[in-house]
Design goal:
The protein is α/β, with parallel strands linked by helices and about 280 residues long. The chain is about 40% helix and about 15% strand. The protein is built from twelve helices and nine strands. The strands form three sheets. The chain has a five-stranded parallel beta sheet, sandwiched between helices. Strands 1-2 form a two-stranded antiparallel ribbon. A hairpin with a 2-residue loop joins strand 1 and strand 2. The radius of gyration is 20 Å and the shape is globular.
């Protein structure tokens, strides 16, 4: 993960920012994580789930889903366990971890299980995507730069749908006029169908049965994009995922504040990616 950011020159012009290209860096493809980058972060939902169930803050990420590739959650993301079986498997992991941490913890499997956990994530993660991210993705494609969605996800009982406003479709356009990359205005759309329209390549962990940070999934992205590792840049909000990509020679941006991350990407590609007010 880069420790410092390129300082490229920039100036405000007509409500958009013109950006100086970083030297010696040619990017032909951009890989985007979904939750925490294009969509809101699932960590908000996890925190709410913990609070509602009186679980210590950060406990699930540290002691349940963050324990490596063999947890029930990681296996769900690779389709190694069914959504039905995940319900009790996740509950069992939580119960063991919580009662080890606090023997007096009163565990209620009706409230703390794999299904209630996934439902809480999907309520937050599948709000409408960040408009600035959509503008950036479509602008990159209009400029001839390939894009890839690379997401760890799962099969659940239903495909999440997004309720999108007319304002969303009015704003979710590339910054240069190209009819080819305009989204069709729909009131409701399946989240994963929207991804297929937005990106040149979409890779779901649940389909390919491997997940970040397994290096094989980055190799698959490279192959599907038809590019080399040093021609790619990857945006994700999880350091471990970025580390796996970086070790292969992929440039990375850790997304904390997503607008700042887009500005960093602008400095690298050398052109404006999203709208901002003239005050910026």
């Amino acid at each position: 993960i880069p420790e410092s950011r390129s300082k490229g020159s920039c100036r405000v012009c007509g409500g958009f920012k013109e950006v100086g290209r970083s030297k010696a860096m040619t990017i032909k493809g951009v890989i985007f994580d979904m939750g925490g980058v294009v969509f809101d972060s699932p960590f908000e939902a996890i925190a709410k789930f913990e609070e509602e169930n009186e679980i210590p803050k950060g406990f699930i990420s540290r002691h349940v889903i963050g324990r490596g590739p063999n947890t029930s959650f990681a296996r769900l993301e690779r389709s190694e366990i069914s959504y039905g079986d995940f319900k009790s498997a996740f509950a069992s992991e939580c119960k063991i971890a919580l009662q080890k941490h606090s023997p007096s913890f009163s565990f209620d499997e009706n409230r703390i299980n794999g299904h209630t956990f996934i439902e809480s994530i999907e309520k937050v993660q599948f709000r409408p995507p960040r408009i600035e991210m959509i503008q950036a993705i479509l602008t990159l494609r209009a400029k001839g730069i390939k894009t890839c969605a690379l997401t760890n996800n799962w099969f659940s009982d239903s495909e999440p749908r997004l309720k999108l406003s007319s304002h969303f479709f009015k704003e979710a356009k590339p910054l240069i006029s190209q009819d080819k990359f305009q989204l069709e205005d729909e009131e409701s759309v399946e989240a994963f169908k929207l991804m297929e329209r937005l990106f040149d390549v979409v890779i779901h962990s649940r389909v390919v049965k491997m997940s970040k940070p397994d290096k094989r999934i980055y190799e698959l992205a490279k192959e599907k994009l038809g590019l080399e590792f040093d021609e790619l840049i990857f945006l994700d909000d999880i350091g471990a995922n970025l580390k796996g990509a970086s070790q292969l020679g992929i440039k990375t941006i850790k997304v904390v504040n997503y607008k700042e991350s887009l500005e960093e990407l602008e400095r690298i590609v050398g052109f404006s990616l999203f709208k901002r007010s003239s005050k910026l």
